[in-house]
Design a protein that fits this description.
- The complex is a heterodimer of chains A (228) and B (84).
- Chain A is an all-alpha fold and 228 residues long.
- In chain A, 79% of the residues lie in helices and 2% in strands.
- Chain A has a domain at 28-68.
- The longest helix of chain A is centred in the middle third of the chain and has 64 residues, at 71-134.
- Chain B has one domain (3-78).
- Chain B has 4 helices and no strands.
- The model of chain B has no long low-confidence stretch (mean pLDDT 86).
- The chains are: A mainly alpha (228), B mainly alpha (84).
């Protein structure tokens, strides 16, 4: 909301858009005398009045030599004839060319205006689309909330798994320790028993056992020979 | 309307001295008058969509006549006859 101290746009005259230029200029006869002069004299002298006036004036100036005929007159006559011939011959073409230039300028300005209008229209449509999109905000936020909930859940479960693994590792360690201890005790006992038994074998017993083994082997070889 | 606000063309012949009396002949007034005349001439003959050569040719003709008038004392010496 614009807070202004003074009222604006209160005058009647509005300078934009400017009024267009008039199509044709004031009428001029013979390129020198405005039409208003002929209209001014028409009520009193009719159509030929201004021409009579012109002829009379010309003869007066010539006869009283207020207008002196000298070399400048000849030069003026030549220049004027060339100029008038040029204008009569090429006037229409130059006018068409100038009209074309004007037309191009106007077309360019119009195209700028139309482009601006089109761009603004597309901007309006996009704005409307954005406004429609805003209505879907709730779905977007629901999806985001679900995402976050899932993330939290996944994190929680991950940590739960970690805790479970850690606890299992500690318990496994304890079990392994106990097994190891028992096995070591077993091995040690076995070794101790074997050592004692080996120590208790006296040389006498050793000779007897060797002799018994030899006898057994002879018996076995005999039975093997018989079998073959 | 009132005399001072009418343009020259709308003033009757008998009222001409009175109308001249109401004119503003100070330098600013004269300058304003000249500017108004020039701008009205331009808007009538030059600032139009389809202008013609007449707009410029009238200015050139006026210039020719003015310069002839300024040099008249010199041109008088080239007269063909002494008595008219």
């Amino acid at each position: 909301v614009l807070h202004i101290a003074r009222p604006i746009h209160t005058s009647q005259q509005c300078l934009a858009p400017l009024p267009p230029l008039p199509e044709k200029g004031g009428e001029v006869r013979h390129g020198l005398i405005p039409e208003e002069f002929f209209q001014f004299l028409y009520p009193k002298t009719g159509v030929t009045g201004p021409y009579m006036l012109g002829t009379g004036l010309l003869l007066y100036f010539l006869s009283k030599e207020i207008y002196v005929i000298n070399h400048e007159t000849v030069a003026a006559a030549c220049i004027l004839s060339v100029i008038i011939y040029g204008i009569k011959k090429y006037g229409a073409d130059v006018a068409a060319f100038a009209d074309k230039l004007n037309e191009e300028k106007v077309a360019k300005a119009l195209s700028v205006k139309n482009d601006a209008i089109k761009e603004l229209e597309t901007a309006i449509e996009q704005e409307k689309k954005e406004q429609w999109r805003v209505e879907g905000r709730s779905y977007l936020f629901d999806a985001k909330r679900n995402n976050i909930a899932m993330l939290l859940e996944a994190n929680y479960r991950e940590r739960l798994l970690t805790v479970y693994n850690e606890v299992k590792k500690r318990l496994d360690y304890q079990v392994a320790m106990q097994n190891l201890k028992r096995q070591k005790e077993q091995d040690h006992m076995i070794q101790w028993v074997e050592k004692n038994v080996v120590q208790s074998i006296t040389p006498q017993q050793q000779k007897e056992s060797i002799a018994k083994c030899i006898l057994d082997l002879k018996a076995l070889s005999k039975s093997a020979q018989v079998a073959v | 309307g009132p005399l001072s606000e009418r343009r020259l063309m709308d003033v009757r012949l008998g009222e001409l001295p009175m109308w001249l009396a109401t004119c503003d002949f100070s330098p600013q007034g004269l300058l304003g008058g000249v500017q108004k005349a020039w701008s009205s001439y331009c808007n009538k003959y030059i600032n139009v969509k389809r202008g013609r050569a007449a707009g410029v040719s009238m200015l050139l003709a006026g210039y020719c006549i003015l310069s002839y008038g300024w040099n008249y004392q010199h041109i008088k010496c080239n007269r063909w006859r002494k008595y008219h």
